[in-house]
């Protein structure tokens, strides 16, 4: 289930607000975007589909990760046996299908086949997996916290609504997967649609859990990664290894994992390291409060402090400690800029030591760029965005990319490089269309960034 946590797309920074994976309809009342000096919205680009960077952690660590992903639900509930589709997998689209869904699905299926070795194809008839596109309002009535979700035993949101309290939709009672529905929003931006397809189709076929400890995966409720990574594709390849079958227990799967990983990922045998433990419920609950859309500033600050306290008590030095400092930075934004900058900087220091966490540090750079822009530190904005833009592009995060380009455009404009500023602004507008969808949201978000620049120019 992809949750509405304000992380993945356009993170809160001074005047900027959002609820990931895309901004909410409520926008801040910034300056009107100047249609005289700024061009009309350009054609919407799309990312080229290429293989992800491979998994970089040890096979021993990833064996534990696989077991925790495959034998546990996001709620913490244990799953008694491994389940998967046995035989070829088909995918069909139904409901109010957005225009971008067809090409996005084609690119994703090509990746599943090439990177995970799956026998999967699209069909127009009854399918193993049915992606049912319905309005966001209907999804919120069914599962209020979800941007999209996956359900066994049904083909549509209507089927799920009728059967939601029955055994047919209980993952823990399955022995094998035969029919699964992905419920996705029909009225979302292209990026939100793509992100839902990536995570929910992967969970429809493979691991059902999310783990906060994973730095290099979409199977993580921090939502920093928006497209499937090399680790994710490896987990799917393992899930469908011929040595495994539906109905196996955790112990039976664990006994076969070393041999499977040695075969499909020989490089991982030469890497040292062990997996982290499951995050305690106290830390997860604090994270949910810190990033909750309805919490007060004081509640977010208190929750972030609890996250740091639990992380330190656990002795963590991984991304969860970084995420705790990130939560503190976000909670202090708007009330204590120096404190927020210290917290963001600490988060970035930790993430830079974690393989697979480049996108996390790029998000921090975006936050720090917003502070620098609002205080007139235009050279620092250029340095931060110069470092973060290639990461946002390579990780295919259009919302982050559009935001960074817009900040860079304002810094270039402020330092007299007008032609370069116009080029960056045009590039930003194109990616903003992919990220945010409507022209109203595109121009509102970029107006917020311009407001920061004007505040910085006034000194």
What does this molecule look like?
This protein is an alpha/beta fold and 459 residues long. The protein folds into two domains: 2-46 and 278-458, Serine Threonine Protein Phosphatase 5, Tetratricopeptide repeat (Alpha Horseshoe), CATH 1.25.40.10; 59-270, Collagenase (Catalytic Domain), CATH 3.40.390.10. 50% of the residues lie in helices and 7% in strands. The protein is built from 16 helices and six strands. It has helices spanning 59-70, 101-115, 136-142, 157-163, 190-205, 230-239, 250-264, 281-290, 297-314, 319-332, 337-351, 358-374, 378-394, 398-414, 418-436, 439-458; strands at 2-3, 89-95, 120-122, 129-134, 146-152, 180-185. Strands 1-5-6-4-2-3 form a six-stranded mixed sheet. Strand 2, helix 2 and strand 3 (120-122) form a beta-alpha-beta unit. Helix 12 (358-374) packs antiparallel against helix 13 (378-394) and helix 14 (398-414) packs parallel to helix 16 (439-458). The radius of gyration is 22 Å and the shape is globular. Residues 4-37 have low confidence and may be disordered.
């Amino acid at each position: 289930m992809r949750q509405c946590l304000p992380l993945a797309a356009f993170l809160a920074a001074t005047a900027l607000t959002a609820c990931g994976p895309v901004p909410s309809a409520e926008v801040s009342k910034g300056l009107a975007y100047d249609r005289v000096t700024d061009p009309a919205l350009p054609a919407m680009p799309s990312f080229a589909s290429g293989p992800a960077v491979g998994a970089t952690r040890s096979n021993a660590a990833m064996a534990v990760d696989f077991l925790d992903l495959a034998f546990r639900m996001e709620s913490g509930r244990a799953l008694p046996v491994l389940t998967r589709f046995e035989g070829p997998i088909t995918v069909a689209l139904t409901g109010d299908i957005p225009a971008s869904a067809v090409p996005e699905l084609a690119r994703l299926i090509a990746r599943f086949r090439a990177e995970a070795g799956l026998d999967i194809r699209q069909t127009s008839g009854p399918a193993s997996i049915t992606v049912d596109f319905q309005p966001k309002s209907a999804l919120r009535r069914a599962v209020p916290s979800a941007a999209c979700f996956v359900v066994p035993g049904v083909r549509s949101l209507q089927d799920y609504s009728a059967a939601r309290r029955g055994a047919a939709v209980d993952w823990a009672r399955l022995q094998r997967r035969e029919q699964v529905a992905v419920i996705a929003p029909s009225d979302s931006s292209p990026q939100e649609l793509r992100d839902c397809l990536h995570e929910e189709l992967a969970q429809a076929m493979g691991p059902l859990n999310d783990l906060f400890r994973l730095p290099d995966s979409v199977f993580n409720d921090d939502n920093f990664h928006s497209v499937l990574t090399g680790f994710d594709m490896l987990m799917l390849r393992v899930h469908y290894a011929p040595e495994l079958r539906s109905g196996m227990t955790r112990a039976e799967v664990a006994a076969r994992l070393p041999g499977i990983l040695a075969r499909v990922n020989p490089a991982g045998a030469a890497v040292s390291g062990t997996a982290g433990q499951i995050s305690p419920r106290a830390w997860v609950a604090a994270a949910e409060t810190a990033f909750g859309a309805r919490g007060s500033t004081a509640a977010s600050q208190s929750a972030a402090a609890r996250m740091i306290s639990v992380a330190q008590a656990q002795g963590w030095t991984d991304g969860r400690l970084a995420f705790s400092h990130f939560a503190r930075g976000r909670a202090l934004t708007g009330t204590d800029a120096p404190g927020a900058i210290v917290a963001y900087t600490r988060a970035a220091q930790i993430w830079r030591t974690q393989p697979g966490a480049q996108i996390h540090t790029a998000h921090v750079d975006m936050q720090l760029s917003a502070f620098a822009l609002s205080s007139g530190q235009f050279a620092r904005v250029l340095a931060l965005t110069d470092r973060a833009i290639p990461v946002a592009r390579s990780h295919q995060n259009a919302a982050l990319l559009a935001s960074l380009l817009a900040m860079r455009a304002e810094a270039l404009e402020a330092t007299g490089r007008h032609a370069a500023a116009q080029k960056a602004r045009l590039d930003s507008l194109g990616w903003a269309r992919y990220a945010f969808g409507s022209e109203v949201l595109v121009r509102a978000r970029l107006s917020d960034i311009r407001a920061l620049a004007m505040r910085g120019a006034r000194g």
